[in-house]
Fold each of these.
Amino acid sequence: MTGEREQDVRALTYWQAISEATVQCMAADERVLVVGEGVDDFRGTYGTTKEAFQRFGPRRVVDVPNSENATAGIAVGAAVAGLRPVVVHTRADFLFLAMDALVNLAAKWRYMYGGDKGGAPVVTRGVVGRGWGQGATHSQSPHATFGHYAGLHVATPATPADAKGLLVAALTGDTPVVLIENRSLYSLEGEVPEAMTPVPFGVGRVARPGTDVTVVAASLMVHEALRAADQLATHGVSVEVVDVRSIRPLDDAIICESVARTGRLVVADTSWARYGFSAEVAAVVAENVPQALRAPVRRVTPPDCPSPVSWPLEEAFNAGATQIVRACLEVCEVSGPALPALEAVTAGFQGPY
Amino acid sequence: MTGEREQDVRALTYWQAISEATVQCMAADERVLVVGEGVDDFRGTYGTTKEAFQRFGPRRVVDVPNSENATAGIAVGAAVAGLRPVVVHTRADFLFLAMDALVNLAAKWRYMYGGDKGGAPVVTRGVVGRGWGQGATHSQSPHATFGHYAGLHVATPATPADAKGLLVAALTGDTPVVLIENRSLYSLEGEVPEAMTPVPFGVGRVARPGTDVTVVAASLMVHEALRAADQLATHGVSVEVVDVRSIRPLDDAIICESVARTGRLVVADTSWARYGFSAEVAAVVAENVPQALRAPVRRVTPPDCPSPVSWPLEEAFNAGATQIVRACLEVCEVSGPALPALEAVTAGFQGPY
Amino acid sequence: MTSDRTRLIREMVRIRVVEEVLADHYRDEQEMRTAIHFSIGQEATAVGVLAATSAQDWVYAAHRTHAPYLAKGGDLTALVAELYGREAGCSHGRGGSIHLIDQSVGFAGSGAILGEMISVAVGSGWAFALRGEARVALTFFGDGATEEGVFAESLNFAAVHRVPVVFVCENNLYSISSPLATRQPAGTSVRGRAEAAGVPAVAVDGNDVFAVHAAAQDAVRRCREGGGPALLELSTYRWREHVGPGWDHHHGYRSAQEIDEWVERCPIRRAVASVRAEEPGIDELVRQWEGESRDEISAAVAHARALPFPVVADLLDGAYAEVAR
Amino acid sequence: MTSDRTRLIREMVRIRVVEEVLADHYRDEQEMRTAIHFSIGQEATAVGVLAATSAQDWVYAAHRTHAPYLAKGGDLTALVAELYGREAGCSHGRGGSIHLIDQSVGFAGSGAILGEMISVAVGSGWAFALRGEARVALTFFGDGATEEGVFAESLNFAAVHRVPVVFVCENNLYSISSPLATRQPAGTSVRGRAEAAGVPAVAVDGNDVFAVHAAAQDAVRRCREGGGPALLELSTYRWREHVGPGWDHHHGYRSAQEIDEWVERCPIRRAVASVRAEEPGIDELVRQWEGESRDEISAAVAHARALPFPVVADLLDGAYAEVAR
Ligand SMILES: Cc1ncc(C[n+]2csc(CCOP(=O)(O)OP(=O)(O)O)c2C)c(N)n1
Ligand SMILES: Cc1ncc(C[n+]2csc(CCOP(=O)(O)OP(=O)(O)O)c2C)c(N)n1
Ligand SMILES: [Mg+2]
Ligand SMILES: [Mg+2]
């Protein structure tokens, strides 16, 4: 976080950063409350709601029945009445049951009533399960599904700093927000400012500068891209990695400026290619800087099938650094020596969860 | 329908074509049944289920409670047990309530259980309300939202022939299908084969050949594109209109071949640009024939806000032929004389509905 | 007391006249480009219930909005301007008949997706309770909406958290053209489902405005005193077609005789009859109120039709908080 | 009769031993890369209910799958191979512990999304009825799943259409670590909600396999005879942690004493005690069955671990019917 004085920053894990943002926002604003199934339990949503419950108790960290649709609508009603609920889902897949309330109520509230009656600033956190045989219905990343709908902000924090900053922005802003967090990032460490500093929606960051090819990535794939870049550097390919941070609004400028410089684009996402994040990024480039493209765009995403459980299949399903390396070499037309497959960021993670 | 002998074809409206496909499939296959709120009433879902009810009665054309989620799950269970339900929604917006059952159950059923246990071939029809102040939650086209998920087929028939043929394909295939129909097309007439002939998913059609610019469109926008093409022809711009028919699978080849020839792409959709149909089409071109692009891609879609009710706003919200003309002139760098605005396909339609 | 009762009648008369006049304009002009679900024949539910509330209490409606909006005290001219899609409408023409709002009187909103507003009302009532405010949230919905899962989920949450919310079910026997019997099992009731979910419930003749009012007063008082949620199942009947201004005797999904029987049970006529003894001048008063309301709505219509439409340049305004209006 | 009762005990013993052995392998090897929800302590529900069904009847389970799968007659080696992610698994390794299937015995599937399989079971039962088949669909779910709207929607549909479906609620008092009292209002019950929805329901001691079996026989018979749906609320208790092989006395969401009390009410021990008089050799038999089951599961594990994994080249197979397997 450039601009922060050193002593303001320390290393936290991704889950600690989310917990800190939650606690700081609750301390700063008594309207904030955490709502979700089991948010009050001993695990505290993988640690992210545990300290909040210890500090603020069951009136502000509220365990709710297994009713995702009503819970989302209730959060809308509470937000309209002046509270700032954060609704937490241990799997983003459960958001399909809350989709009507998020898309038909939260996203449209402000506009439908004329724009000057206030909105429904509910914050929804969905955790993406990945690895350890999560299976077809416990491992999806529906960020693009929500990103299609006007009225929402949708973010996919890749670092502990952004996990904190984007949650702070969500809880201090006036727009309904969907935050898609990847469970595999929870134990990653990174520098996080102590201050309750928001990270604005719609502002991406260059995670690594480069000159030959741009890899635009979201969430976990930012790290896969960085590791791919390391390896490619050893083979003379300079990769620029763009972390979009939020997919709605999307920072078109940072994407286009990078591709204008590198002339090559690879998009990496944890969700499917069709009508997904990778499609939108390619479209933004095709709309704005098509002439800059010196090679076809490549998308690194899961293949077009549901997620399997059996680990060899699951490993193959979850595209990562190895596939990004291959795509970059292809668009750079470097037929580099067969490179050793890279171990996934998530390797060593001990299931089950 | 090339290949059909003349006497096999007659003019039907879009709704008549859907009704005919339904009745023919029910007559041919006793496993087919129609399920939906009010499908049995005097309006018969804008006429599409009326004859089926008259002919097959309440045991096969079943009015159900207002329970979209369970109805979708019940249809899955019925399909798994060997029936072929068509679930009908008078507004596609209601599909958000059925989304979990469609995405987590229907789409993944075959794969989750190993691929050899059969699937859940449920057919879901969602009618898009448009015009006459339908409002923010009664006018959405969620085809891209479903198009993102592997396991489904998703189609957006633009003509009476395809409305019939794609429904026949859905009811005679083994894949769960989501059909998004636009209410504004219901009274359009077109030639429809008498035979119960399927139109395959994933095969687009060139609705009008041209040489200067390709307009790829879905559903209603195909007609807006055709009308735009007529007007542009009078100004020396030759437009090729591609009707994708189905968005999952998507006919990448027909899109790329056309753009390879014309060098210019405009994508027209009834839903939003971000993470939508227009994004995927642009991405397919950027992946496959980027070098063919002689101009930036243009997307003609609704602006990034919910649909307003007040008619001047609604008219401005619903992009159509006029915007397509403007986009085509722009990519062709023809600063044609200010062209008269075109009246929408839907003009003259008498609400309310 | 008398004045209370006549006030309820007057309110019903006003809503009846307003909707009948609007229906005529709607049919004859085709200028209100928004789907309207009239409450003609169902006035006693909104009037009886909402007379038991204060402006601090919030009510959410479903798609049949005009009666609750007006009964809560919603601004008539802003309503009519909204129906005509004008910038001066209560939702600046963005919402139409189904998305009404008047925060100054506690009409918190209405929506087109069956059942969803029930959960929203629970959320607002929950917020009131969490802040320790003695305010009540109410939600109007039909018999058909009770088939949506969100209704059961909302009842359960409200009961567990003792939310001050009054669930008001206007049971008019139909969901569009589907009769209750095809949608809900014989021998069950909305009231019974609510009680099984832990929400105290009463079934009341929804065309008896005084009975409705008394039941609502009890429910609202209990909520205010921290007694938790309540449900009112109010049996009533829609006279006109589901959506739009017409009558639908001829469509066959319900008999002309059934409609006529319910018209006989007109909530206004019944209320008038029951106060006539104590209020001999009531018929004269009703005629007078009808005239006043006719003038009021006619003026509102004329006024609205002269107002400007929204400016297309403002199309995006309000989609996001950042895009101010 | 006796043999019936001992058969039920034997089935419970087998499931108990299988799950205990699997739990040890799961913990020690970390090779079954799939989230497992053990039914240890809850064997009487699956065994008692499914012994009342035939292979033509279909059962759907939720996420706690092994007991219903085995009690319905599901193939043990295919189950174990599935847990180890092998191609020979019942779902070819694509589904894992939560997505089991054995169509040959009527185990129609199981799923991870709370409540959704309830609606699927109603749909299959509806199909049976529409075709005039005397078959019954059953669906197992927990107390927590009854909070999902789809449960209420499914009850309503089943009652309206008199679907031959038996709703089996295994009420083990918790949803992960959330006790019933924080999720459902005091004084209500799953049984009461079902009855209010028009579905006849009974509450039975879910650790009394004979009582469960008798209730299930009644429900299944009524369904088969066209009497419509039924619900069984079976009170029971999960011994181990919600997901995974361990015990969780130390996590504090429930007391060690509560767990110990329920272990005292072990369904197997209780069944054994109740037949001891008429079946003096029962303890010897149980020891014998335990040994046989231990050998059976140990062989299945050894066999599964030697089996090949799916081939990565087949990754896309089965996503669509067109991509044959
Ligand atoms: C989720 C959803 N499903 C279906 C509809 C279509 N619809 C609009 S009004 C209506 C009838 C509702 O009946 P009821 O709740 O009894 O209210 P009433 O119209 O009788 O006042 C239906 C089915 C909808 N708006 N939303
Ligand atoms: C829709 C949905 N919400 C939440 C979850 C997370 N979850 C998995 S199991 C479970 C507990 C369910 O409790 P219950 O239904 O009583 O079954 P039990 O585990 O006690 O057998 C929860 C909340 C889920 N899988 N699906
Ligand atoms: Mg009704
Ligand atoms: Mg439980």
Amino acid sequence: MEIKVRAFGIAKDILGFREQTLSVENGETILEFKKRLLSQYPKFEDLVSLAFAVNEEYCSEDFVLQPLDEVVIIPPVSGG
Amino acid sequence: MEIKVRAFGIAKDILGFREQTLSVENGETILEFKKRLLSQYPKFEDLVSLAFAVNEEYCSEDFVLQPLDEVVIIPPVSGG
Amino acid sequence: MTDSLMDIQVLETPLSVEKCTAFVQDPAAGGTVVFVGTVREWTKGKRVLRLEFEAYKPMAIREMTKIVETVKERWEALKICVHHRVGVLEIGEEAVIIAVATPHRKAAFEACEYVIDTLKQTVPIWKKEVFEDGEVWVAAHP
Amino acid sequence: MTDSLMDIQVLETPLSVEKCTAFVQDPAAGGTVVFVGTVREWTKGKRVLRLEFEAYKPMAIREMTKIVETVKERWEALKICVHHRVGVLEIGEEAVIIAVATPHRKAAFEACEYVIDTLKQTVPIWKKEVFEDGEVWVAAHP
């Protein structure tokens, strides 16, 4: 299935894109998606944290992705 | 000897004046001055506190008044 | 009492949050905290028409300066502004503005709160609340 | 997210302390505390030329709204304003302004500090410091 991926801050720099459609396994969880991301882009390992949001809400690692979900990759925030 | 007395806030209302020259005993302390004030104007007894300043500084009750000192009567403050 | 690092005034004219905040701006500041004390409409269920503040001005400035000196030392504050209004104030008007800039923000919160708490205890300024049916010197009686 | 009691915005234009403070004015307020976060010139001994902020805007507004809702409940805040700037900011410019009005002042200090502390932990906004010899996403690495 396909999902949309958006990245901000340093995540965007590591990935080299701000927005892209990616193919993932049907019923993939955030945890599985994260593992694949880390193995493909090891620089994510160096970050203090790595969170994900779907539908403008933080989601837990057992969240099951649906086709056309927009997954937002959230590196450590630093507003304020 | 003579001293100058200034009063603010409710102290001014109780005394009925804002500024006056008063005669006191030579070498009178703030404590003695305060006692005389309380007996002459019993409404001061009702206040939460009563402080005195000489030369723009709070002074303790054993402070000895000098001729021409300006004694400022400071009822409970309520700035801010 | 005004120099380049502190601005302490008792004023008969309306206060300005913008001015107080601008004064404490500093390239080394990481956080600025501003306290604004306004005239409340209700106190203990009674409607306040207006407030009247009076100050023993030279001593008020002196006492505020002491507070500010403590803050500069204890919290390494960079710049501090304390403006207190006197005279007749209408509901919603600013009675006091305190702005503190520090390198790190936690200190700015603590320092600003210390200034207002201490100001209310030691600075010779008095507030009279005027109601429809009378007036009261605030905090005078138990 | 703006109604009569809260004003939460992510803006590309300069912020205004005056506006944020004015928004939270309330006849029932006894204390207003305003936090202003500015761009610092030095960080760990290095000179910052400018900052660049980016936000995941809809979620940033949502997360800020959650914080504000908590504050309204926990501290009985009357009105709250949170304005966060994004884009390129020069030294001394305001990055964030948080204003909280409560009936009693202690609550305003606590609530305002809670907003900035929590905002820095949960709101999806990112800050890049630009130096003469490179740039760094703040807080990304240990």
Amino acid sequence: MSTANSPKTYRLTVPSIPDRITQVDEFLEANLQKAGIADEIISDIAIAVTEIVNNAIDHGNAGDPEKMVKMNVTISAEEVAIEVTDEGGGFDPGAVADPLAEENLLREVGRGIFIVRHLMDTVSINGVPGKGTTVRAVKKLPPATS
Amino acid sequence: MSTANSPKTYRLTVPSIPDRITQVDEFLEANLQKAGIADEIISDIAIAVTEIVNNAIDHGNAGDPEKMVKMNVTISAEEVAIEVTDEGGGFDPGAVADPLAEENLLREVGRGIFIVRHLMDTVSINGVPGKGTTVRAVKKLPPATS
Amino acid sequence: MKLSHREEAGVAILEPRGKIMGGPDATLLHDQLHEFIKEGKLKVIIDLSGVDWMNSTGLGILISGLTTLRNNKGELKLANVTEKIQSLLTITKLVTVFDAHDSIDEAIKSF
Amino acid sequence: MKLSHREEAGVAILEPRGKIMGGPDATLLHDQLHEFIKEGKLKVIIDLSGVDWMNSTGLGILISGLTTLRNNKGELKLANVTEKIQSLLTITKLVTVFDAHDSIDEAIKSF
Ligand SMILES: Nc1ncnc2c1ncn2[C@@H]1O[C@H](COP(=O)(O)OP(=O)(O)O)[C@@H](O)[C@H]1O
Ligand SMILES: Nc1ncnc2c1ncn2[C@@H]1O[C@H](COP(=O)(O)OP(=O)(O)O)[C@@H](O)[C@H]1O
């Protein structure tokens, strides 16, 4: 693979409009495909990233189209690192209700971060009141077979 | 009132498009207002008629825009009679579930005919398989005070 | 029906106006409730003061709002129920299902 | 996501295709389920064979369909759950909530 040794970073900024998630996904998947990453892994990353960006739009920026969501996608031979930053009030991930608790099973929402942690290898959430939230999630890639 | 002694019939035919209910209501209310009927009574009739026409569109004609719903509104000094006919398969009003039963209270649907019977003085439902359903509902008017 | 909404003391307040008779009305109200759920606004009041009348479609929308919010650990309250709507709630036994209040203030305090 | 639907043996079958990732998807699916309820079609199957993947928005839509239909005395079944979706249902414990079948035929028979 030609990109094997030099990490590349791709950047996208979108306004907080729910329908823009389609554009975010297309941008992400196109760049991962260009880097020769397997479809199986691409869909895991895409699921996780759409969760994170939906949260940034809905919760962080509360759907205010004046507020932006920034995404960096860094692809190296070893991993794909995603960083999503919003302009919201930050939040405490420890305070999120357990989506596996019996009484929460029929809730329509509340599984996003849980799924991100399951699909990605490392996830860090940095919410600073007044400065927004940055979520960083990394997916390790299998060693190249060629 | 000038129309006191000569019953007048107004006719409207609409295709089975759910949004057309607005037009049906406007047609009905305009004619009842013209006849000098009190607002209180107009809204009772309007509630009942929108129930009947929604049923004709949704259940009778199953939302097929090629099938029509016909409405006659006859206004006399004594009463307002409504007749709504669809092109559906007819139905058995006796088989409709009781909307007051405990286990049906949280259903979103199933209260229409019950409400029509409550608001109007006489209601007859004539469903003929292959010939559609005609619902006739009459509201008695209070004696004129002038 | 026309629909607007506002927020007060952390409670989302829906303000339908006009008549709730079916057609486009159900979608409008339902979409707004789902928008609230997505944004984590789970305390919702429907202010009925501006509603001239509703038929069973309107009642169905209220029930859908109630059950959807409950499934998501939220709560729906009604405020300013007019006489005509109160009578529909009574004959359909839905008075036993909804928590209705005489004013927005009282509805807010009841959460 | 693209959405079509058909009917078989008195059962409404929803056929979403593509990815279910949020934005416009939720409204589309939810409106169609409400349309079914209005028309009295209360046995519904969601055929997932054409869905590449979904995120929690998709799971939320499935739950909303399930609870909305149950509230209306209907039932929702899943058919042709792909491996990726099955794994999401498993880790979120939603396997215990949904009735899933390997084919449309089996899902129809299960009502
Ligand atoms: N970027 C963010 N800014 C502020 N709050 C957030 C953000 N991301 C997540 N949250 C909070 O964490 C909760 C759980 O998020 P998640 O697990 O994705 O479930 P959902 O988004 O379906 O509610 C959200 O309801 C919200 O309160
Ligand atoms: N014009 C009609 N043609 C065929 N079936 C009808 C018609 N009107 C009513 N029905 C049947 O009667 C049932 C009860 O109607 P209704 O009390 O108005 O409740 P809803 O329309 O909310 O289901 C409907 O679900 C439908 O099965």
Amino acid sequence: MIKLLFFGRLGDSAATAPELFEASEGLTPSAVRYALAIEHPRLVEALLEPQVLVSIDRVIADWNQPLTDGCELAFLPPVTGG
Amino acid sequence: MIKLLFFGRLGDSAATAPELFEASEGLTPSAVRYALAIEHPRLVEALLEPQVLVSIDRVIADWNQPLTDGCELAFLPPVTGG
Amino acid sequence: MSRRVVVQSEDFDLADEYRRLRELDAAIGAVVTFCGLVRDCQQQARIDSLTLQHYPGMTEASLNEVVLAAEQRWPLHGVSVIHRVGALLPSDQIVFVGVASSHRAAAFQAADFLMDYLKTHALLWKSVESDGQRSWVETKDSDQRALQRWTQSSTPP
Amino acid sequence: MSRRVVVQSEDFDLADEYRRLRELDAAIGAVVTFCGLVRDCQQQARIDSLTLQHYPGMTEASLNEVVLAAEQRWPLHGVSVIHRVGALLPSDQIVFVGVASSHRAAAFQAADFLMDYLKTHALLWKSVESDGQRSWVETKDSDQRALQRWTQSSTPP
């Protein structure tokens, strides 16, 4: 299984989104994102924003980087610190 | 009498310069400066530098402003604070 | 070069941070500090509280990258960055940046640069509670514009 | 706008000055402080001590003018300037500038501006004791150049 994390505004809209996602051969963050967007209409807009970044095991990753079973996948909307 | 004050590097070279200067009709800071430069060769160079400012009674003054008896005349070389 | 990067929910003490920076080296001639405070009002709305969310590990790494960029750009003796997370009230301290250098220009520029980069590159998400409503803060155009000062070809400001 | 300008031989306490600035107004979002320290070395020469000479009354007036210029240029809630005079040793604090504003850009720019103007406009004369010899510090070209940043027609850095 892949552990899912949603930050910022994505965390709000992801209130009903799953915390885990079934791992499968060749799965990418991009595929997970589209699957979530289809199943959770409240997530669509915020999740598909072009500024959203993704990290795998706490390192910024490419949307097409393959995911391994047991990894932590996080969706990071634009930051607003300071 | 006019009270004379010399700051910074002028204070060093003015060690032998007078603390008072005789007031007279129409006397200006410029006239005092030249009189001091003539009588105190060690003051000449530092006193005639174009960056030297003059104040009368603690207000920056013009070299040709008339001096009044009892005033405080100060010679201020370039500042180096901070 | 001494570097200190901390993400914490506890408050920080400017006096402690300053003491640490000024004692690093006898060649230090300038210490610039920046403290960010929660304003009572934002975009004309009264603020009840702010909440800063972070991603443990990644947030620290993002702050370290920003500090590294400043170190490579100016000759510095020390840099400290503290960012608070969690719930904060108006007038609370949010962020501290401190820079020690031999000369004032480097200290001012590096502190200014650190704040601009931190606003746009630190992995932190801010929400505001106002009139009982919570809303996520949007990235400001002015913060994006501030960044451009540091990437233009001219000498640093 | 709250203004505090002091010339004193005693040391100052950054924590006290910061507290005073941050408590001025709940709209304050940024406090920038600058502390100048005596470096142990200047122009490759080891320094035994520094002495700052001032002209009571006039020195304060010259500092007030510099602060007034900053107030007219940026929206500020508070400015504090403390300049020490008399004999100082390496690592001693010489000068404090603190600025409180709603926004960070104004606070950074005003503090930077204040230091540049203070270096060139404050009526203070600095001498250095090194190897038993006393010498007067010359005005630096870099300080004069720093000033030009604020008078050029482009927007402030």
